[in-house]
Specification:
The structure is a single chain. This protein has 22 helices and 19 strands. By secondary structure, the protein is of the alpha+beta class. A 6-stranded antiparallel sheet has the order 2-3-1-9-8-10. It has a 6-stranded antiparallel sheet with strand order 4-5-6-7-11-12. Strands 15-14-13-16-17 form a 5-stranded parallel sheet. α2 (about 80-90) crosses α3 (about 100-110), α7 packs antiparallel against α16 (about 465-470) and α11 (about 345-360) runs parallel beside α15 (about 435-450). The protein starts with a strand and ends with a helix. About 50% of the residues are buried.
Length: about 575
């Protein structure tokens, strides 16, 4: 897990590229505190911030040249099945390291772009071909690892974070449509967009090959065809599905235990996290130890500590309880806004950041997490109650679009998501996997884990698991009034019914209450400044804020939007 950066240009002088790259690597040095290195030739400059997880020796540092000397790679992520791939490649290559990076590079040399289909992991990468003068770029299936870029006729500049591109001299200009959509509909941009004009993402599951001739005309190509994969996945009878899915669960976890550093796990009282704990207990090698981390707010209406304690009472794992306090929130919002570069989730994201900080201080570099089950198994309430929402657990509109002035509000254009499946439930799952829930959760989590020099692994986002679950009939996902029905059947063999059959709890922090009470003065100041933005009607903002303070607190999403927006834009 690391940070990558690069500048491809035949126009910029070498010294200019070196200066740019140095500033870029400094801007994202938190992503790789263990080593920072650069590589340059006449057209391409590549840089890398390393967080050492597999093969801790300096031989595994990047940028890494191929043994033949033709290629150079920078790579962010982990290839969990690198040992299996290496075994296939051993007859054809002399390996110099024990790293997954060298396996990745040799796999590209051996199979070409088809090597991507061999990979089980999370990655964003760039490979420079010194002979052809081309740059190959690719991103993993679900976009776990980020890839941002700026391109014009003179350069293709890429990095793991947006702030890194700003550090190279690219201007910070609002993407007006994305901001208008965020405030109108609560959306966070399409897979190729960011909140900043001219800064783009390589979409999840896409690749591209760049040359000096196509810097502004290249079109990313989809290499991961999720829809076809799902359509080719058999619909199974319940008994066979349980057997196959359970086997894949165990294998996905086994692969993610591979690390040369200490492991930890993030836990809550929910079903997904509970299954993670149970599966770790079942599969963790006796040679490895693991610690658990959870956050709480000292509020019994929200805290999941009783559930977590129940889950761990017969397990040998040390539980680290991380407290989020109301008076910490303002400073955390400032710090994470600088870290995230774009709007992010509310107070749970702040608490999550504290959790990674504690793990890092204890020397734990890899944390396992339960992200992905709700999207694969249709676990959110809006999949079933026809609410047409994209936010769990709200009964009123999560946004207040009326606070925007007319001209700005008119820029908003509601996203139309593909609907490639016959099932409306599957189409909602598809939207959440590639356009809404998963992309933003992965972005939030990548930034806060890397801010603290830790790697986050999500075993439930193993593509084999997602494809198998997604392809099944609606009635094994929602049945007898229960979400994630078949998953609950599997979990009853691992957990008590008290946990396996418990309903989903959508709220994790007292955000609504703190905003109106303990943080009232802080929020009032932020909202007053938000009202002064050139695209906002300050009178309407104040009216809605007064209404909130007087008890209209069904949800606080729009209040969080305003705080988040002004904090990101005020500098």
């Amino acid at each position: 897990m690391c940070g990558i950066a690069g500048v491809f240009s035949s126009t910029f002088a070498l010294e200019d590229r070196k200066l740019k790259l140095g500033k870029m690597l400094q801007a994202q040095e938190h992503r790789g505190p263990d080593a920072t290195q650069e590589w340059h030739d006449s057209q391409c400059s590549l840089g890398h911030n390393r967080l050492s997880i597999i093969d801790l020796s300096t031989n595994a540092n990047q940028p890494m040249p191929s043994s033949c000397g033709r290629y150079v790679i920078v790579f962010n992520g982990e290839i969990y099945n690198y040992l299996e791939i290496k075994k296939e490649l051993l007859p054809h290559f002399q390996f110099q390291t024990q790293s997954d990076t060298e396996v990745l590079l040799n796999a590209y040399i051996y199979w070409g772009t088809d090597f991507l289909h061999q990979l089980n992991g999370m990655f964003s990468l760039a490979i420079w071909d010194k002979q052809e003068k081309t740059l190959f770029i690719a991103r993993d299936r679900f976009g776990v690892k980020p890839f941002y870029y700026y391109a014009d006729a003179q350069q293709f500049t890429f990095a793991s974070e947006i702030k890194t591109l700003w550090a190279s001299g690219i201007k910070k200009i609002r993407n007006q449509k994305v901001w208008a959509n965020y405030l109108s509909f609560g959306t966070y941009g399409m897979p190729n967009e960011t909140f900043w004009d001219t800064i783009h993402q390589l979409p999840a599951g896409h690749l591209a090959v760049l040359s000096q001739e196509n810097l502004t005309t290249f079109e990313p190509q989809r290499w991961y065809d999720f829809v076809s994969r799902v359509q080719d996945t058999p619909v199974l009878e319940v008994s066979m599905l349980k057997k196959q899915y359970t086997a894949l669960l165990n294998d996905a976890l086994r692969l993610r235990f591979r690390a040369d550093v200490p492991l930890g796990m993030n836990v809550s009282g929910g079903l997904d996290s509970s299954m993670l704990i149970a599966l770790i207990h079942k599969n963790l090698p006796t040679t490895q130890n693991i610690e658990a981390f959870t956050f709480y707010c000292n509020d019994t209406n929200y805290d999941e500590l009783p559930w977590v304690d129940l889950l761990l009472q017969d397990k040998p794992y040390l539980l680290n309880k991380v407290l989020l306090k109301a008076d910490e929130v303002p400073d955390l919002i400032t710090a994470l806004s600088q870290n995230q570069d774009e709007p992010f989730g509310g107070f749970p994201t702040l608490a999550y950041s504290l959790l990674f900080d504690v793990a890092q201080k204890k020397g734990i570099k890899v944390l396992l997490d339960g992200q992905g089950m709700d999207e694969a198994w249709a676990g959110y309430d809006y999949y079933h109650n026809q609410s047409n929402q994209v936010i769990q657990g709200v009964t009123s509109s999560p946004v207040r679009a009326e606070v925007m002035v007319t001209d700005f509000g008119n820029l908003a254009e509601k996203e139309v998501y593909p609907q490639p499946f016959a099932s409306s439930m599957q189409n909602m799952q598809y939207r959440d996997l590639f356009y809404t829930k998963i992309p933003r959760a992965l972005r939030f989590n990548d930034r806060i884990s890397m801010l603290h020099g830790t790697e986050l692994r999500e075993p439930f986002l193993d593509h084999r698991l997602v494809e198998l679950a997604f392809a099944q009939k609606d009635n094994v996902k929602y049945n007898q009034g229960k979400t994630k029905w078949l998953l609950r059947q599997i979990s009853q063999e691992l957990l008590s019914n008290q946990v396996a059959l418990a309903p989903k709890r959508p709220l994790q922090t007292p955000q609504r209450e703190w905003i109106a009470n303990e943080l009232n003065a802080y929020v009032s100041d932020k909202i007053q400044k938000f009202g002064q933005l050139d695209f906002v009607d300050s009178e309407k903002v104040q009216q809605i804020w007064e209404d909130y303070r007087n008890g209209n607190q069904d949800n606080s999403f729009y209040i969080w939007q305003w705080i988040n927006t002004i904090t990101l834009l005020q500098d």
